[in-house]
Amino acid sequence: MSSHDFLAKMRRAIAVLVALFCSLVVYAQAATVRVVGPRSLTVSMADLAAMPRTQVTTMVRNQRITYEGVSIRELLTRAGVPVGEALRGRDLANAVLVTGADGYQAAFGVAEFDPAFTDRLAILADRKDGNPLTANEAPFQLVLTGEKRPARWVRQVVSIEVRPLEATRK
Ligand SMILES: Nc1nc2c(c(=O)[nH]1)N[C@H]1C(S)=C(S)[C@@H](COP(=O)(O)O)O[C@H]1N2
Ligand SMILES: [Mo]
After folding, report:
1. Closest ligand to 61 CA?
2. Counting ligands in written order, which one lies closest to the CA of residue 152?
3. Helix (H, G, I), strand (E, B), or coil: what is residue 68?
4. Is 169 within the bounds of a domain?
5. pLDDT per residue as tens digits for the range 115-137
6. What's the Cα-to-Cα distance from 72 to each of 24, 45, 48, 97, 114, rounded to whole Å?
7. Strand 157-164 with 32-36, pairing
8. What is the pLDDT of residue 14?
């Protein structure tokens, strides 16, 4: 192979890599999370970046990791979910269902995300130790303090839905 052929191949390989990288970036920026509540909204990476940011340092499987993102409570407030003293009565029977891109789901009670009820922190993370999340977590992961297992740390979150549990409403 002549050095000319080699250079041409290298150039093509680099072009393919750049194209792949750019489409990944575009894909990540197009990613959104649907927050379903009294005033449902859809948030993008840029929207999250512009909201008040919260850092959470956690220990999972003996690893200390600092995640950064937006508190779930902030997102619920923007979706019109009552907060603090106003979160009472029938609203306390509301569940929060978090869903990942693969259909994986974890359920919570609405008070689990309210600082008037708990000191535990919960964020929709988009950064981990200062970097974007890894491919199987990105673009957004639910990160909670006070969990003994990370099973409810839903990766690739696509929606956060506040919904009544009908059976408890009668
Ligand atoms: N979207 C999605 N999130 C998920 C899961 C999943 O299957 N899909 N598994 C959960 C479970 S059971 C655990 S223990 C952790 C595992 O995270 P890891 O694969 O990054 O270790 O992710 C949680 N979040
Ligand atoms: Mo798990």
Report:
1. 1
2. 1
3. strand
4. no
5. 999 999 999 999 999 999 999 99
6. 26, 15, 11, 12, 9
7. parallel
8. 79
